[in-house]
């Protein structure tokens, strides 16, 4: 009985990370700064669609962290709405924009350990590189609106680079039609 309780506690404290690439952005205004580019029509359609899929898969993050770039922030708010996550709970982190895999890893290592499930919304190539570092399944590209969830066999975020996790879900709009 004691061993079962221990295994249950361990399973609850394992970490899960969902990497989300922002939805498709607009190039309609070429003079607009890259940071300010909003979602285009396809992005505004795919983000809620993926939010519904995330909700069906019971991806229920304790924390959403997003790049503050307009396209990523819009994606974060749309996904949060679809899964019932409070908009005011989204943590925007400047360093995610134009980040590297190592910077993202540093950010994750500093997450409070009582947080078990994190959704990180950002940009390529860093997201795909991170997915390949922490996952057990090679991914050539996380497409726009793509969601890659990995279960990590760690109990502290500080150990994220010690063991690759197991791919739980890899979803993207074209996979569904």
Q: Can you tell me the overall shape?
A: globular
Amino-to-carboxy terminus distance: 47 Å
Mean pLDDT: 91
User: Which fold does the CATH topology refer to?
Assistant: Rossmann fold
User: How much helicity do the residues have?
Assistant: 25-40%
For CATH, the homologous superfamily is named as Phosphoglycerate mutase-like
Mind telling me which CATH architecture this is? 3-Layer(aba) Sandwich
Could you describe the 3D structure shown?
The protein has one domain: Rossmann fold (3-Layer(aba) Sandwich), CATH 3.40.50.1240. The protein has helices at 2-13, 41-56, 70-83, 101-109, 126-134; strands at 15-21, 63-66, 91-92, 117-122, 147-152, 166-171. The longest helix has 16 residues, at 41-56. The protein is 34% helix and 18% strand. It is α/β, with parallel strands linked by helices. Strands 3-2-4-1-5-6 form a six-stranded mixed β-sheet, with helices on both faces. Strand 2, helix 3 and strand 3 form a beta-alpha-beta unit.
Keywords:
Rossmann fold, 177 residues, alpha/beta, six-stranded mixed β-sheet, globular, disordered N terminus, 5 helices
Question: SSE layout and pairings?
Answer:
Layout: H1 2-13, E1 15-21, H2 41-56, E2 63-66, H3 70-83, E3 91-92, H4 101-109, E4 117-122, H5 126-134, E5 147-152, E6 166-171
Parallel strand pairs: 1-4, 2-3, 2-4
Antiparallel strand pairs: 1-5, 5-6
Helix pairs in contact: 2-3, 4-5
